[in-house]
Amino acid sequence: MNQGLLLRLESLLQLRGACQQLRALSSRRVCGARWKPGQLSAHPVGSLLLHPQLWPKHRIISAALSPCRHLATKEETKKKKKRIPLTRGEVEIRQRMTVEELAQAMGKDIDHIYEALLYTDIDLDSVEPDSILREDHIKMIVQKSGMKYKSAKLKEEKERENRDAVKRQVVNYPAVLTPRPPVVTILGHVDHGKTTLLDSLRKTQVAAMEAGGITQHIGAFIVHMPSGEKITFLDTPGHAAFSAMRARGTNVTDIVILVVAAEDGVMQQTIESIQHAKNAGVPLILAINKCDKPEADPERVKKELLAHDVVCEEFGGDVQAVNISALKGENLMFLAEATVALAEMLELKADATGLVEGTVIESRKDKGKGPLTTAIIQRGTLRKGCVLVAGKTWAKVRFLFDENGKAVDAASPGIPVEIMGWKECPSAGDEILEVESEQRAQEVVAWRTYVEQQEKMKKDLEVIEAKQKEHRLEYEKKQQKLAHLTWRQRKAVLYKANKHLMFSRPKERTEMDENTLSLIVKGDVDGSVEAILNILDSYDCEDECKLDIVYFGMGDITENDISLAEAFNGVIFGFSVKANESIKKLADKKGIKIKLHNIIYKLIEDLKDELNSRLPPTVVETTIGEACVLDTFSVTVGKNKIPVAGCRVHKGLLDRKMKFKLLRNRDVIWKGCLSSLKHHKDDVQVIKTGMDCGLSLDKNLEFSIGDEIICYEEKEVQQTTSWDPGF
Hints:
alpha+beta, Rossmann fold, 5 domains, 727 residues, Elongation Factor Tu (Ef-tu), domain 3, 35 strands, Arc Repressor Mutant, subunit A, six-stranded mixed sheet, eight-stranded antiparallel sheet
């Protein structure tokens, strides 16, 4: 023990000497310098001082290091002088802060902010941690918390320079313009033979591969004519759900071939297709299909089209009409020649030099290749290595593929091509522009993202202000009702009235309303997802069952989709996508429904069935028998007199086990069960048509002659949604 004490004293003496050396060392250093990281520990004296086991928290160390305190740089000293520390109980606020930011600034938890908001006109149901609070509310919350506020100095944000990419100016020099293939869009009603027509033109079996024989998304490809001309065809879906795709097809096209079935005539999507062509200012060629059928009537089709301002040449108009049979291949060359002749009249030319311009026709995700887009090139020549921008994404072109999946080196104007190398999938219909470098592409994407965020913030702010104005008016009405109370009494009443809201904030709601259907929508291509979302936008039965789209995107079903569905108690709908076995097993384990479809109307039917299952059943009354009260009397049971009705059954039967109701002047005055049912003096269970009986109710109610007794059965029937998606 004494030996340990001696060692301790010896160490103390060593430390005292080390401190003196360190003071001397620090005093010899140049004024304004400071110890660099690791320099003190590298010094033999400093290493002794900083030894963690020998002197862990000894005051002598702080005394030894005290000379180093003044060695900070002049810049740091200036910064410290500039900072004006907040006094205790003072909060630095801005004009707009989120609930979370205000809680952090005040050093409180979010619950404290929610409790303070109970005294305001803000609707607590709509408040989330990232909800923005106005300055007057922020000040009020700070004051209610017994603190003072101090406005932060606003940083003046410089107006950002527009860094967007734009199209080149149109140059009409004949020297740079070269002929290009016409882009032809085939439009028409569903199942009128559009894909079969293209199948016959390019000698492939596209129609057989399509689900249900219905085109689900745009196909873009080239048809080589025997005469050497090329025609680029776009096959757009005819189904009602794909209106946006048809509109997109006409916006990039030169000629529209309107396919009408000879036996069906003009249908709903036929009229819509004519309207799309007119809006785009594109000339029409009429192809009357299925003319080989015995019920075909091409003349009727031409006359029906007159009502929609489509006048064929034989009626004095400028629309060429060709009678064809796509299935048998009849008159297809006449149709192709008519297309080439119209293209020659239009004198279609483009500039194949300079930066590339084009339009995204379709986009999808491929497991091996990543994001892919089908595009039509409109100016310039696209090659591998080009840097492109479309929407809010960009690409450095790695590979180009034609419609058959074969790699190509370049794509000139009017040629459809599949582009590989995108960072993300752009939206169908986005404009493609070539830029000089990857850095420039990133600048363009950053600018477009910034502009979109600013627009979104502006819209959100308008919605928030409108909502807050609405709640402020409600709040003022409540205040007027409490005007006769003192301010303390008013506060107490408001707090009691709103306290329950604090415990049911949206952030704490883990269970969704049973009457809400949460959806995760996945599709093979961007256009398919767009079509499904357009249909869902028409949903107008929120009072029956709420429809909540949690997530939508492209690609196969993933584990992340399962997690989302589990969190929101939702259903996954997939269109032309797959779910591997491991995903299916995981979904079964967690009780998640995955519904996969290849035909859009079947997907919508399945969705309607799912909506029906979420609706509460309705109770339907089925009448079993009817009787009329012919006489009334009463019987004595103990000390009580019980009213009895003498009745005759004139329809069906009366079953004592069932429920009954009493009608007087067609008004229901009682519903319940019978306490007795007798035929003469015998208790019976059933009275049939034409028989007389006496009955009493489970409630002492006086009867009147002419009253009706109805025997009925209640059945629960599943409700069906009244939503009509339009097909």
